[in-house]
Amino acid sequence: MAQSADKMSLEVVSAVSNSSLFQPGFSLLNFDEHTFLFGQKGWPKRSCPTGVFLLDIKENELKMKPAFFSNDSCYLPPLRYPAICKLRDNAESDEYQYIIHGGKTPNNDLSNKMYVMSLISRNSKKPTFQCIEKDLDGDVPEARYGHTINIVHSQGKSMSVIFGGRSYTPLAQRTTEKWNSVVDCLPSVFLIDFEFGCCTSYVVPELQDGLAFHVSVARKDTIYILGGHSIQNNTRSPSLYKLKIYLPLGSPAVTCTILPGGISVSSGIVTQTSDTEFVLVGGYQSDNLKRLVCNTIVLEDSDIQIVERESPDWTPDIKHSRMWFGSDMGEGSVLLGIPGANKQLISDANYFYILRCKGEEDKEELTAQICSQTSSTEDPRDSTPFEDSEEFCFSAEANRFDVDDTDTYNEDDEEDESETGYWITCSASCNIDNNTWVPFYSTEFDKPAMILCSRGAGHWVHAQCMDLSETMLLHLSEANVKYFCNEHIDLNKGLQTPKKVVPLKKQPMKPLRKKTTMKLTSPAKKSFLRRLF
């Protein structure tokens, strides 16, 4: 296979502020050459309630600044492994928005919602977004993650196309042993009219197996689907699918063709280097083997070419790391991360690299191309995350901040995320494990039931760890009473003020009758005493 001549470079990000907020499945949004982090680890905190951060990279040092939402914005949870793409008003417009669909919340709930994000204030000191939830109707795609979304243009019309991903096992098929198991979504193709929110699903005979963590690139009315992992067969598809979307005045039509020259890869990352050229990096070729080979993908008219290109000089740490994760930064650059457990005393630290797929001499040309290209030639997945690699326990240390920049995110005073959520260690006897937990109560679905202990400021405990019966749990949830966990119930009893005893109501005594005296003669007295004794 011929190789592309462009040389790729790898730069180490020497210092990362608050790297604990990065996790596998994060996404990067690119607005006006500024990069924003979306999908932080854990729930947003007071210092940045939106959970969206501006990434400020200077001299290979990465700093994070909070981004803001407008007052008319909806709530947007931090989502891992969502499907993301750019949306333009028309094919010639330089202005664009981001569409975000699906993904996992910090509680591992799956989302089926669609959001539209627009940058309405470009002030680097206070970047402000507007986030709107899009109402969907018809064949609404089920909640999922690890899927893709693209925009296609045909006959002067545009539509969103959703394919692939994973979801939880349907409720009717769940068993106690596999309650939280995930399955491949059905290989249906969803077309969404973005103006009206109407969804229509199509079954294509060529797509037999569900795929997740695949790569998709789009141009005009055509989408190319490459690789992907099937959890049912535990295989990575070597096929290359060509989806063509026709948008006539009547009903749309979807056709699929299987092309030769596919690549067996999952969780790859795609970045765009020119109007018709993309670069595929990262991913896995098997469960325990990273794919260190890079490829150039060229889209011209209705044709696709995939050629191998010279890979960067991967560092020994990257080569020997079992996992890696990252996302497209735009302008032909990719942010890569590896766990640094073997390199630092802090086991939850990470190392980050910036992979540049174009030389410095091409940067000015690349910027001009990216600002003028249509959405159908944009990278359809600004974040194609690595599949189901579990969250790393990232460092919560935040002792490096720019004292001269008050807008830099600071989490020193924040609540420790490890103390909140459903998967905490609630007590010394806690035995709830996110990887092995199965529902215990009939009211549980995909997370354990919890109850608030009223000791002090209050803290949450698992009902199962407190040996609460289902009847008692339901009673406590309905009754307006305070509950104290097993560790604090005795202490609470010792500190309780004795209950006030209501005095008994005394009945008024009846008045005594007036005493009468009876004089007895001596014989009568003797007779009376005999009867008495």
From TrEMBL:
Transmembrane segments: none annotated. It comes from the Eukaryota. Zn(2+) binds at residues 426, 430, 453, 459, 462, 465, 485, 488. Residues 421-498 form the Recombination activating protein 2 PHD domain. One of its GO terms (molecular function) is zinc ion binding. One of its GO terms (biological process) is V(D)J recombination. Its main location: nucleus. GO terms for cellular component: DNA recombinase complex; nucleus. Keywords: Chromatin regulator, DNA recombination, Metal-binding, Nucleus, Zinc, Zinc-finger. It is found in: Nucleus. InterPro entries: Gal_Oxase/kelch_b-propeller, Kelch-typ_b-propeller, RAG2, RAG2_PHD, Znf_FYVE_PHD. Belongs to the RAG2 family. This is V(D)J recombination-activating protein 2. It comes from Amazona aestiva.
